[in-house]
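Need the bound structure for NAP, inputs here:
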Amino acid sequence: MTKTAFITGASRGIGKGIALRLAQTGFDIAFTYYTEEAEAKAFQAEISKLGQRCFYYQARLQETDVPERVTLKAIKDLGHLDVLVCNAGKTTFTNILTLKTDDIDALYHLNYRSYLISTKIAAKHMVEHGIKGRIIYISSTRGIRAYANDAVYGSLKAALNRAVQSLAIELAEHEITVNAVAPGATAIKGDYSPEALRKGHLSSLVPLKRRGKPADVAGLINYLVSEEAAYITGETIKVDGGLVLYGPDETKKER
Ligand SMILES: NC(=O)c1ccc[n+]([C@@H]2O[C@H](COP(=O)([O-])OP(=O)(O)OC[C@H]3O[C@@H](n4cnc5c(N)ncnc54)[C@H](OP(=O)(O)O)[C@@H]3O)[C@@H](O)[C@H]2O)c1
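Answer from helper R.:
Posting the output first, comments after.
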């Protein structure tokens, strides 16, 4: 039976890279988009050309009933579900002195609550059908290292990293694994040439001297869904070129 994957937020950026890589591996794909209908349609055509079935849905995932509805739809269209990748999210910085309650709620609903609701639906389906599935959350190195103006986004990503640990324990008896992948500074605009990735101050701060690209994240996902990764669960794995390895350098003398 052809393996299947449902990826949220795959009309562009990291999610698109993940969906493309899984399609190239032979997965049938279902994915969501929010605003970029033309991109989603073109991407469906690209996946179809690879010989894989592909379904896409418009979804505003912070709405109460949308994550459940769209996950059920993906399972129905695909016929069964082997892999869930929760990726859709908004990246923001918020200052505590100007923070709006609505902004906290919107980010919580999209970047955290929608992940758990989709997981509930997917896990229930996998358990009922004896599928040794894979559930993967796209987190961030900002959930690992603290930055100013990051008490909302960074903390929600940290919560995802913690959630996969509990979910991994809960679903282990069904041989379903649950992991998080934490990208660092990742280019998402489409120019992934070595020159483009090396440009800019941020790239110079990365030990590997470039920003990441969606394919860097997708390569790890492709491994995590493979048979070889069946014994990895409850982990948060960074894909950041070493970005958050640095701490203060105590060996440096005062100038
Ligand atoms: N890029 C980075 O440097 C980086 C680093 C660490 C972690 N991440 C994480 O990686 C994930 C993907 O980010 P990205 O950088 O690839 O972002 P992106 O290019 O902005 O893509 C975000 C995806 O999510 C969808 N989306 C946005 N708002 C939505 C909403 N309210 N409801 C449903 N879908 C929505 C978008 O759909 P439309 O395009 O159709 O609107 C798009 O498909 C996020 O969880 C982000 O936090 C990114």
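Comments: The chain has one domain: 4-243. The mean pLDDT is 96.
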